[in-house]
Design goal:
By secondary structure, this protein is an alpha+beta fold. 46% of the residues lie in helices and 20% in strands. The chain is built from 12 helices and 16 strands. Strands 1, 2, 3, 4, 5 and 6 form a 6-stranded antiparallel sheet that branches.
Length: 500
């Protein structure tokens, strides 16, 4: 191995990616929050509009029923007058039924005796013989003195007209049952009232009594009149709450709606408007798709831009790493250069001092290189240096081992954590590899290797370390070359600088 290259500043690619994704998610969350608020506003506006409409219609119906009730109460009071039966039939009609024309879509008002027979009819002086004893409004007044104004279930006349009856009890002075005053109201009144309103498709408006019987519905369907919706969610709130709202699926047509209901005055009638959720959120869905498309496009653009930036950052990091490698690598041999060797040696020397671990250094010099270079030329000399470098690179297997070109035809191998014996084995391995290369190319020169191994301490420096290895190399040169000489442990070797 050629040792670890100096690590360039780490590019925080994951942080940049996380930041980009976080920004996209935050932007999307803000847009989602805005859209959610818009949806809530649309819902609230629809609810307020429905509440106002229901209140307005309830007030209109209540006012008309009150007028009708006043007419009924006037008849109840009138039939108790002692002189009422002494006046002429014409005058009696005027006295009893003069208010009957004030209410909209009012039918005839009938006065029934305790047996249910018709005594008086507001439409004629000679009422037809009819008995109403089997009708619900007659039975309720017959049974209860405190029934007050009673609104009956819808019923159909022989002519096919749909009516509801509004009635009050006639009591004797002793409180006993004396008959019933009953008037009819055409359901067409509600139909005409509802028909004036503009509804969106799938919206509905329903009038029903406290028993859950449907009196009128828009859109109108004659088959639904009289149908019971007692199981609807409205009756979970009524009568504890006279008004309210909820969202549910209609039991009539299975459409999900926002329902707003209100009691009609103090009468046993409820009116509820159902706004289809599809209509409430129709505009919101359009905005959602348009805004969502813009957000998606911006998010996609941001992601693409983010990956482009990441790619650019990685390319720059790779370029910086390559420049760092080139700045610390010898161009001819591919080994580390002198600068990198000095920096690595300083770092390993400090580490060795802390760990009390040995550090070894091989100084390698090509024998008679100047003669070889002059004889065969510079290109052949460069080839020799490259071959020696390959032998060094093939022998240094650890990540911490560092082979370097020290200068000219001189090389160094730094072996952190290896003692004298291991360093000798490494040196011999390099020399053997070069010997094997010489068998293929007879004219290759040999190498001399000087070795130093020390445990760094305060009494010696890395410069002393290099000097010891250099002196061992000097001795290898002057004792015959093509050999390995180890520096004595603990002292410097005397002598002169090695000869080429």
């Amino acid at each position: 191995m050629q040792g670890l290259l100096p690590r360039p500043r780490a590019v925080p690619a994951k942080r940049l990616l996380a930041l980009g994704i976080g920004l996209v998610l935050c932007f999307s969350a803000v847009c989602a929050s805005i859209l959610w608020e818009m949806a809530q506003k649309d819902y609230q506006h629809a609810k307020e509009a429905a509440t106002n409409l229901v209140a307005s219609i309830a007030s209109e119906i209540d006012r008309n029923i009150e007028l009708y009730d006043l007419s009924l109460q006037a008849v109840v009071d009138g039939v108790k007058l002692p002189e009422i039966n002494r006046v002429s039939p014409e005058l009696r009609q005027v006295v009893l039924f003069d208010r009957a024309a004030t209410a909209k879509d009012m039918g005839s008002i009938l006065v029934l005796d305790p047996a249910g027979e018709v005594l008086l009819d507001s439409r004629t002086l000679t009422p037809r013989k009819t008995n109403f004893a089997d009708h619900d409004f007659f039975r309720i007044h017959q049974a209860r003195w405190d029934a007050g104004l009673f609104i009956s279930q819808p019923w159909v006349t022989s002519d096919g007209e749909y009516l509801i009856s509004l009635s009050r009890r006639i009591s004797n002075d002793d409180g006993s049952f004396a008959g019933v005053v009953a008037g009819s109201m055409r359901l067409s009144y509600f139909h005409n009232l509802f028909r004036k309103l503009n509804f969106n498709a799938k919206d509905s408006l329903v009038l029903f009594n406290s028993n859950g019987t449907m009196l009128m519905r828009a859109p109108f369907d004659i088959k639904q009149i009289g149908q019971s919706i007692k199981g609807s969610q409205t009756f979970k709130y009524f009568p504890a709450h006279s008004s309210g709202s909820y969202v549910t699926k209609s039991i009539v047509d299975q459409i999900s709606r926002l329902y707003v209901f209100q009691q009609v005055g103090h009468h046993p009638l409820l009116i509820a408007e159902g706004l289809a959720l599809e209509n409430i959120y129709a505009d919101w869905w359009q905005q959602l798709w348009s805004i969502g498309a813009v957000v998606a496009a911006l998010s996609a653009f941001s992601v693409v831009l983010m990956f482009y930036l990441l790619s650019a950052v990685k390319r720059r990091a790779n370029a910086e790493s390559e420049l760092a490698r080139l700045a610390s690598t010898d161009g001819l041999t591919g080994l580390a250069n002198r600068r990198r060797l000095d920096n690595t040696l300083a770092a390993e020397w400090r580490r060795g001092m802390r760990a009390k671990a040995p550090v070894s250094l091989l100084m390698i010099d090509v024998d008679h290189f100047k003669v070889y270079n002059d004889t065969y030329g510079h290109q052949a000399g460069d080839a020799v240096l490259a071959t020696v470098a390959q032998c060094i690179a093939a022998s240094t297997k650890r990540a911490t081992d560092l082979g370097a070109r020290y200068g000219g035809e001189e090389f160094s191998v730094l072996l952190p954590g290896i003692g004298r014996a291991g360093a000798l084995e490494m040196a011999e391995q390099i020399r053997r590899r070069l010997t094997a290369a010489r068998e293929m190319q007879q004219d290759l020169p040999t190498v001399s290797i000087g070795l130093a191994s020390m445990v760094p301490g305060d009494d010696r420096t890395s410069r002393d370390f290099i000097t010891a290895a250099d002196l061992a190399l000097y001795q290898a040169k002057h004792t015959g070359r093509d050999r390995v000489v180890a520096s004595p442990v603990g002292r410097e070797m005397p002598g002169k600088r090695r000869a080429a």
